[in-house]
Amino acid sequence: MIVVMQEGATEEQIDAVISAMVEVGVGVHRTTGASQTILAGVGPTAAVDLSLFEVLPGVLNVHRISSPYKLAGRAFRPEGTVVEFANGVQVGGKQVALMAGPCSVENREQIFAIAKCVKAAGGQFLRGGAYKPRSSPYAFQGLGIPGLEMLHDAAQENGLLTVTEVMEIAQIEPMLPYTDMFQVGARNMQNFNLLRELGQIRKPVLLKRGIAATIEELLLSAEYIMAGGNYDVILCERGIRTYETATRNTMDLSAIPMIHKLSHLPMVADPSHGTGRREMVTPMARAAVAAGADAIMVEIHPNADKAASDAAQTLYLDQFEKLVYELRIIAKAVGRTL
Ligand code: PEP
Ligand code: MN
Q: What pLDDT was estimated at residue 30?
């Protein structure tokens, strides 16, 4: 950590900051410039709360120079992580993976029709929520276990993997037989107890970025899961809330190359939640592949306008087929397959 003192900071103020740094266990290296003093702290700074130093008299600002996440950081696995599934499917390798399905599992007919389409398009993952985090308690909340059974059966019949959202610790155990990858939704990105518990299982976790989360906060949430020994974490950019209201969320495409720089974990892009608008899903999916996404996750439905949740951002099946055709061309152009 680096503490930059204000111009004119007194010796007493500098001494007080040095004492505070020593107290939290870091070694201090002082540089006294013509007008400003800089204090470099070396040692176990990951757990140090920098704001404690920012408020000390005479301090101008405080920076961290080593990342606060050790397991999720790129240095832990410089070559990058490839998450491998039981059937040999990989996420994080040369092939861009395809995850598609409805926002919510609604009935057998719906999920079987979708699974068939995902398989025919060359997809690997069937997504679909059975536990839905809805803004309104009166909106469709998902089918629960019967929905998971349908999802699992449809995936099995078509040789696909399942990815579905877990909202609370008590759901983990009953979901295990139906789930190849647990999705942690944006609203639960900082449900630390849930993250810790998912660190104890040995199944991949798709961790979505919270609507107001910084990249550092997303990586710290991944760290919670990895600290339990579950290293199979895949991150997902699904849009963040900004001052822009024309789209449901602002899809932060720069998060893809930035996270690839900061972390070794694979990165999925979800342009459905990222934009909230059907006509924008395709252009943003194309851009995400071009930006280096390791997988694309999209919501699709045979009767998209009538989907029980997220209808406005859901693609019709023929739109999805066309999208996949286009993504293959873009993947090739950036040295990937799809
Ligand atoms: C979803 O995938 O349907 C979902 C609820 O996602 P998010 O948590 O990104 O809103
Ligand atoms: Mn959705």
A: 87
CA distance 139 to 122: 33
pLDDT averaged per 10 residues in sequence order, the chain, 338 residues? 93 96 90 88 85 95 87 92 96 98 98 98 98 93 97 98 98 98 98 98 98 98 96 98 96 98 98 98 98 98 98 98 98 98
* 102 Cα: distance to centroid of ligand 2 (angstroms): 8
**Cβ proximity of 150 and 107 under 8 Å:** yes
Contact assessment for residue 149 and residue 178, using Cβ atoms and an 8 Å cutoff: yes
| 96 Cβ contact partners less than 8 Å away, ≥ 6 residues apart | 289, 293, 294, 295, 296, 327, 331, 336, 337, 338
Distance 170 CA to ligand 2 centre (A): 22
**Residue minimizing CA distance to atom 4 of ligand 1:** 185
Give the pairing type, strands 83-84 and 161-165: unpaired
- Look up residue 136 and give its two tokens: 């309104």
CA atoms within 13 A on the CB side of 223: 19
Contacts of 313 (CB under 8 A, 6+ apart): 248, 272, 273, 275, 276, 277, 278, 281, 299
Q: Contact 315/304 with Cβ under 8 angstroms?
A: yes
Pocket of ligand 1, candidates 165, 166, 272, 296: which has the most ligand atoms within 8 Å of its Cβ, to mutate?
165
Residue 3: count of CB within 10 angstroms of its CB? 26
CA atoms within 13 A on the CB side of 105: 28
